[in-house]
Specification:
Structural class: alpha+beta
Number of strands: 12
Bound molecules: heme C
Length: 326
């Protein structure tokens, strides 16, 4: 995934994020660090997630405003509504390979086709793959994703960029003569930063296995990525339990220490380097999706970092946390 950060003009990605972070910092800054949440809520019980839509039933206003954010729209199924961004501009020719790409709709499904052009002008070497999902809200960019029947996800070679009213071009990392074509698998990391995890079965996030994904994927980063699994809270609230009890059953970042607050964002917004070197290592025995908001992030993953002073003039995309910390 490291290639993603190499183009296009990265500063456009970062500025809106930093603006948002400043707003959030203001919010977090005002809240005193109260007592930590009880262990039981943070305990890594995968099955304790609820359907991502469940929270909206009681927190309608928060859900409606959160739905506007890029994070809430970071992953979606390919439907006429979500694909409307394409407009009439559905083709792209890649100079470095001489390949032409076209996105089309047939019987309610979307497809990306690639072909070469024979000397007589006719299409040859034609290949086609169904577009099942879109990754990226499109605030800046979108990647198109196919899912095989075994659950494997593939990032397709052509993506969409919002600039200048929107256009198709090679996805980050694909703009070369020998790119991976329709074979680049989406790993746990890529998915884990870009969607909710409420539909995953226990044990399917073992990093030693091929990353396979369920068919009923969430549509965007949900409340539980920041508030932790919500089943205990929803059950308590549905039974009309004592308000103190139902509040204790869900992680509220504003009641946590500053480190735990920032780590909620760091699970996705920290990348110490975008080079090919690994920028972090996960602890042994931890499933790819076992981090729970409220637990120390270093119990889950250890980040490599530059020595003090070296870091400041380097640029990486998902590193806003350095500034957040200041
Ligand atoms: C059945 C109704 C119901 C559902 C569903 C529900 N909540 Fe709540 N939630 C409540 C109530 C009631 C409170 C307490 C409100 C108050 O303190 O005034 C609350 C409080 C909270 C708090 C604040 C806790 C604190 O310590 O201050 C958070 C965070 C929260 N809910 C998140 C969620 C999330 C995330 C979901 C979905 C997983 C969810 N809620 C689903 C009813 C619900
Ligand atoms: C460490 C977490 C992380 C990983 C891993 C990661 N991303 Fe991202 N990605 C982000 C964050 C954070 C942003 C938003 C950056 C910003 O707005 O400053 C982003 C932005 C994007 C966007 C642009 C969305 C928009 O419109 O703003 C796309 C598309 C994208 N990523 C695709 C991918 C794909 C495909 C992969 C894997 C092959 C991947 N990302 C891996 C964290 C990650
Ligand atoms: C990107 C992380 C993030 C996501 C996603 C998120 N929250 Fe929060 N939420 C926070 C933070 C941080 C706070 C504490 C700061 C504050 O109060 O604004 C908070 C506070 C809350 C509170 C208590 C304060 C209040 O305003 O009542 C509730 C309830 C809540 N969130 C519900 C939700 C629900 C429901 C969703 C999904 C629709 C959601 N949150 C999605 C980070 C998040
Ligand atoms: C599950 C991973 C994840 C978590 C947790 C997370 N983010 Fe994000 N964030 C992303 C991704 C991915 C994007 C890009 C979404 C897109 O536009 O497609 C993003 C985008 C943003 C943006 C750009 C504006 C927008 O409309 O969304 C801001 C600001 C932001 N995040 C702040 C935060 C803060 C602050 C926290 C912690 C309270 C946080 N994020 C937690 C993954 C995450």
């Amino acid at each position: 995934m490291s290639e993603l950060r190499t183009e296009p003009a990265p500063s456009r990605f970062l500025l809106p994020l930093l603006a948002g972070v400043v707003v959030l910092l203001a919010l977090l800054g005002c809240s005193p660090a109260l007592s930590q949440q009880p262990e039981s809520v943070l305990g890594g019980d995968e099955s304790a997630y609820v359907d991502a839509a469940a929270c909206a039933g009681c927190h309608a206003e928060i859900a409606a405003s959160y739905a506007q954010t890029g994070m809430a729209r970071a992953f979606d199924a390919a439907t006429p509504e979500s694909m409307a961004h394409l407009g009439a501009d559905t083709t792209f020719n890649h100079d470095k390979t001489g390949h032409s790409y076209q996105i089309s709709q047939r019987d309610g499904a979307y497809y990306m086709q690639r072909h070469e052009t024979a000397p007589d002008g006719s299409p040859t070497n034609v290949f086609e793959m169904r577009i099942d999902y879109i990754m990226g809200s499109g605030n800046h960019a979108r990647s198109y994703v196919h899912q095989y029947s075994n659950g494997k996800l593939i990032e397709m070679p052509v993506g969409w960029y919002a600039e200048n009213g929107g256009f198709l071009a090679m996805s980050p990392g694909f703009d070369s003569a020998n790119h991976r074509g329709f074979r680049r698998e989406i790993g746990f990391d890529c998915f884990g930063c870009h969607n909710g995890l409420s539909t995953f079965e226990r044990g399917t996030d073992d990093r030693r296995r091929d990353p396979l994904f369920p068919g009923n994927l969430d549509r965007g980063i949900d409340c539980q990525r920041c508030h932790g699994p919500g089943l205990a809270h929803v059950e308590a609230a549905s039974k009309g339990s004592d308000p103190a009890l139902l509040r204790a059953a869900i992680f509220n970042p504003s009641h946590a220490s500053r480190d735990r607050q920032i780590e909620v964002c760091m699970q996705c917004h920290l990348e110490t380097t975008s080079r090919l070197l690994p920028h972090a290592v996960e602890r042994f025995g931890r499933g790819a999706y076992s981090y729970r908001p409220g637990e120390p992030l270093s119990d889950f993953i250890l980040h490599f970092d530059y020595p003090e002073g070296v870091r400041e003039d380097r640029f990486e995309i998902a590193h806003a946390v350095y500034r957040l910390r200041k």
